[in-house]
Structures
1.
Amino acid sequence: MTKSGKRVAWITGGGSGIGEAGAEALAADGFTVVVSGRRADALDAVVAKIRAQGGAAEAIALDVSSSDAVIAAADKILAAHGRIDCLVNSAGINVPKRSWADMELDGWEKLVEINLNGVLYCMRAVLPAMRAQKDGCIINVSSWAGRHVSKMPGPAYTTTKHAVLALTHSFNMDECVHGLRACCLMPAEVATPILKLRPVVPSAEDQARMLQPDDLGRTIAFVASMPPHVCVNEILISPTWNRSFVGGL
């Protein structure tokens, strides 16, 4: 908690899924949350929901693959609030064509631009303010695929999510001396809208057994609530009924 009592969190990919759940959980914990994403209507709905629950929220339309747009968004948040205490990098995509047999370079490049470059752009954008504060928490949403290689997510997704894990640890190596800390959150299957992009969409029964967005929202809030001397370097989390263990993947 800052001396003024105000804490500000910026959540990318905040219009749905894990980002939305993280924004709601952080707002419930007293953060002023700024959600960003490419769909203004989805962001507005999240903001309205948080405000209806008594939280403080606002939205900034953003494509994280544009470094200039990311810098402008960070500057806008800092101009309005004077600080950024927590960054949640939740923006991410996958594509239907995800095997070596049918992958396309356009799909590879989109995943690298959003899943990896976008994370880096946002981390760099908040770095000066967090260094000046001598305090700041970054939560990078990677994936079970960032730790374990399997066929289903595809080479592009798996590669970018592994890279996010390395990026997170390298950040902690350099920035711990400035009081900053980052966590790589690696969830296995989560029942979010991105599942609709899979070549084979999981059944409703299987999705009910997966991690739910609220599970990740609570996890994000837990990491963000740790005192400044605590760095949760990584979290690998899965549903108890894990399809990669029981032969469903």
Note: The chain is about 45% helix and 15% strand.
2.
Amino acid sequence: MPRGQGKTIAQNKKARHDFAIEETFEAGIVLQGTEIKSIRNGRINLKDSFARVVNGEVFLHNMHISPYEQGNIYNHDPTRARKLLLHKKEINQLIGQTQQKGYSLVPLKVYIKNGVAKVLIGVGRGKKKYDKREDLKRKQQKREIDRAIKESLQ
């Protein structure tokens, strides 16, 4: 199955609006206890989450996974830092890219692939206000063109 494919559980739509994503990486997540059950139920939020490289390991911060209802004592802290599983070569590549000024690691989506939870993280540069406006204009123009083509075909 190609990278980024699988049953999508959560998407960070704001990430593509706020960042110009240049490259993406697929990573596994180290989960504890009943976290996978909460993820399968769709009780996950990627808003305001980010990834950071610490001591040669990649960690995902501020990703909120709600506690599982039937989990009792096996539940977890909802916003704890979670380790991402990447190859050493990919981590070294991420270190090089994020040390450049303006680049960040942003989780784009969480999905289940072959029964395992995966995160698609992107290396992106923060967009300025005028870049966001240009993107909105392009999107609106494309919508108008598509609408005009659809009307002319009918």
Note: The beta strands are 7-11, 19-29, 44-45, 50-54, 57-61, 64-65, 82-85, 103-113, 116-126.
